[in-house]
Amino acid sequence: MGLLDGKVAVVTGAGHGIGRAHALELAKQGAKVVVNDLGGSVRGEAAGTDGAADTTVGLIEKRGGTAVAHHGDVADHELAGDLVRTAIDTFGGLDILVNNAGIVRDAAVWNLSREDFDAVLRVHVAGTWSPCHHAARYWRQRAKTTPGSTGRIVNTTSGAGLGGNFGQTGYASAKAAVVGLTLTLALELHRSGVTVNAVGPSGLTRITATMPGAGEVIEPDDLADDEWHPMDPANSSPLVAWLASDQAQYVTGQVFRSIEDRVIWMQGWRERTAVSAGGRRWEAAELGDRMSIDVFGTRGAGLRFDPA
Ligand SMILES: NC(=O)c1ccc[n+]([C@@H]2O[C@H](COP(=O)([O-])OP(=O)(O)OC[C@H]3O[C@@H](n4cnc5c(N)ncnc54)[C@H](O)[C@@H]3O)[C@@H](O)[C@H]2O)c1
Fold first, then answer.
1. What CATH number does the domain containing 243 carry?
2. What is the per-residue pLDDT across 141-198, written as a single tens digit (0 to 9) for each?
3. Which of 55, 132, 212, 257 could join 264 in a cystine, given CB atoms 3.0 to 4.6 angstroms apart?
């Protein structure tokens, strides 16, 4: 008995790395999986050159699971619709959407081209929004005809989006946008029984390999199923599978990180301290003292900024 027996899942960007690991785990838990990947470089170039989606489908089938490949670009709105339809036409429905596809084009803001900024935003933000749009339409309709039906979206954020990272203004903007999108989708889809959460994974993948000093790429199937490596791209996949399961119906609008052996429930942008002007507009000159003493505490000593 798997946690996801009878479910149908779509995993985007599942040809390599973390997405491949998610697809393998969801299939291991009993889901039928549509493995999406356009098969390009880590920068999102040369689409259709590496057949990565087919490799993952082959691995799933070899392990006794059921999967089909989809080679579309998730940021293309029509192809994202085709992706959702592939699940419905091939496996009879859709229960789980894991938006994982991603690229990187890193450079400090003064060296980053507008073209590279746009390309990163397109894949992570539009490439998450479009599959969600098509799946949401399907799930809203299904909720009307099948009361009690449910759905799952797991989006992919990162430490850069949650806390910033030097050289990643495009990537961090995109990954922060994924969080805003997740929180809003959770509100919009609640009445349709659909939960929406975000996971910030980790692992030695093609993406981390672009960073100086990072270790070599590990594909999830390079390691034995029971082998422990702290940077195995598969380490976040059990969390994704659990969020996708019926057990997690009560979990929505949440952000998690999965780093090595830890699952971390993240919370941010909560009101911390506030000062009131007392029913009038502030004078700018008053704010210096009030901010440093009453908001940040003891002349700014409570304020932390770590540029390292
Ligand atoms: N590796 C990490 O430590 C880490 C940390 C935080 C977040 N992430 C996120 O995890 C996700 C997976 O990245 P990864 O590290 O496994 O990298 P990866 O390059 O191994 O995998 C990303 C996959 O997405 C595919 N892809 C890219 N653009 C696509 C598109 N438009 N349509 C369909 N497929 C597309 C690529 O072909 C690739 O197979 C990304 O969203 C990434 O931002 C990774």
1. 3.40.50.720
2. 999 999 999 999 999 999 999 999 999 999 999 999 999 999 999 999 999 999 999 9
3. 257
Task: Report the separation in Å between the CA atom of 260 and the middle of ligand 1, taken as the mean of its atom positions.
Answer: 18
Range of the domain at 285: 272-308
Pocket residue to mutate for ligand 1, from 10, 37, 207, most atoms within 8 A of Cβ: 207
CA–CA distance, 145 with 66 (Å, rounded to integer): 27
Residue with token string 């479009």:
130
Do 124 and 167 form a contact (C-beta atoms < 8 A)?
A: no
Distance 177 CA to ligand 1 centre (A): 16
How many Cβ atoms are within 10 Å of 39's Cβ, its own excluded? 18
Cβ of 236 closer than 6 Å to ligand 1, yes or no, is: no
Report how many domains make up the chain: 2
Q: How far is CA 22 from CA 155, 164, 279, in A?
A: 12, 25, 53
Residues in the chain: 308
Instruction: Give the atom of ligand 1 at the shortest distance from the alpha carbon of 21.
Output: 16
127-145 vs 169-189: helix axis angle to the nearest 10? 10
What pLDDT, in 10s, does the model give residues 14-65?
A: 999 999 999 999 999 999 999 999 999 999 998 888 899 999 999 999 999 9
